[in-house]
Amino acid sequence: MSANKWMIMKKLGLLMALALAAAAGFFVIACIIEEKFSIRALPFVIMASVIVFLCIVIIGIKREVDYIHVINKEIQVLEGGDLSREITIRGSDEVTMLAESIDEFRKSMKNQLSMIEKLEESNRLMAAEIAHDLRTPLTALIMYLDFASGKIGDREPQAEEYLVKAREKSVRLKNLLEENFTYNTMPDYFLIEKQQLQAYEVLGGFLGDMMTLLESEGFYVRSDTLYGHSTILIQRDAAGRVFSNLVSNIMKYAQRDAEVSFYCREKPQYVEVRISNLVRQFEEGKPESTGFGARIVKRLMQEMDGEYQAEEKGGVYTTTLRFMKV
Questions:
Q1: Could you tell me whether strands 307-313 and 316-324 are parallel, antiparallel, or unpaired per DSSP bridges?
Q2: Coil, strand or helix: which one is 313?
Q3: 228 exposed, middle or buried (CB, 10 Å; 0-12, 13-18, 19+)?
Q4: Beta strands 259-266 and 231-234: pairing type?
Q5: Nearest-CA neighbor of 298 among 288, 308, 311, 312?
Q6: How far, in Å, CA of 226 to CA of 318, rounded?
Q7: For residues 102 and 68, what is the distance between their CA atoms, to the nearest angstrom?
Q8: Which of 212, 254, 294, 306 could form a disulfide with 301 if both were Cys (CB 3.0 to 4.6 A apart)?
Q9: Are the beta carbons of 163 and 143 closer than 8 angstroms?
Q10: How many CB atoms lie within 10 A of CB 87?
Q11: Rounded to the nearest 10 degrees, what angle do helices 157-184 and 292-303 cross at?
Q12: Strands 307-313 and 195-198
């Protein structure tokens, strides 16, 4: 016989023993009242025994239901991400066995997440150290290439061409290391708690700074922004990084004699920001992109429970950001 079946039989036996004890007790009481054995006391004894049996069963069921409610609330806490909340262990029945299994699963998940966090931190530090170690010689290499190019001048056109290409590749490799370093240090932003702020206050500040910077660089800016009075979920440092990345891309890839349009509107569930610009036509082809910038913006927006989209259509590049309302 399995442990579960044995436990059930044990409980039923206990209930039957209590019912029989109650019946015997009521029978003795009835005989004392009648001062002799009377058949008329049997219905009373049977009824009283049934009532006692049902009361015991109901009390036991209520106790189990209350325990299940407690476990349900604790599971909801776990669903919210708080794995430090222990599951209440009470008794030794089947529900308790289930609670013990859930708590063991909680401990296992907590340990695994802790290991994952340590591995991610280790990988992040390793990437940062590699980027730092490589940036120093690359900076020196670029300096020597500039020096060599200046010395050669027009005396060796082909050699100068090779030097220019070598410098371009060195700069690209250095930029790639910088972007990789930035991408791996992004978790620092996520350690700071998100805030509930007025859309016009935070978005108005970031977009205003973007437009001022672009105008100072010779871009023509058109603004169509209505922030409303909504409260959005945002992390200031992460949002600042998002808009800094966007303005950097505009200055790098946008056509300066065409307008850069800013659009902001309040939607039922979010506040939407759209930035559009005409893509510049490069004589020697568009510079290669690693895609790190877009991945950084997308990841930062996801961490703020927002959305990021970017598309190029008919030479117009449009970036859409959606900040969730609260």
A1: antiparallel
A2: strand
A3: middle
A4: unpaired
A5: 308
A6: 18
A7: 13
A8: 306
A9: no
A10: 22
A11: 10
A12: unpaired
What pTM was computed for the model? 0.52
Could you report the average pLDDT of every consecutive run of 10 residues in the chain (326 residues)? 53 63 62 56 65 71 79 82 79 77 84 79 69 68 72 66 72 69 60 79 90 90 85 87 88 88 92 92 64 80 90 92 92
**Residue whose entry in the numeric block shows the structure tokens 């509930």:** 196
For 116, the token pair is 């994952």
d(CA 37, CA 42): 10
CB 225, CB 262: distance < 8 Å: yes
- Residue located via tokens 């476990």: 71
Which residue shows structure tokens 């702020």?
Answer: 197
Cβ neighbours around 249 below 10 Å, total: 19
Rounded to 5 degrees, what are φ and ψ at 233? Answer: -95, 120
- Please report how many Cα atoms fall inside a 13 Å half-sphere around the Cα of residue 169, on the Cβ side: 6
Residues 6+ apart with CB under 8 A from 181: 127, 128, 131, 132
Alpha carbon separation from 254 to 219, 275, 315 (Å, rounded): 9, 11, 10
Encoded tokens for 172? 């690209």
The C-alpha torsion from 297 through 298 and 303 to 307, rounded to 10°, is 120
CA–CA dist 298, 246 (Å, integer): 11
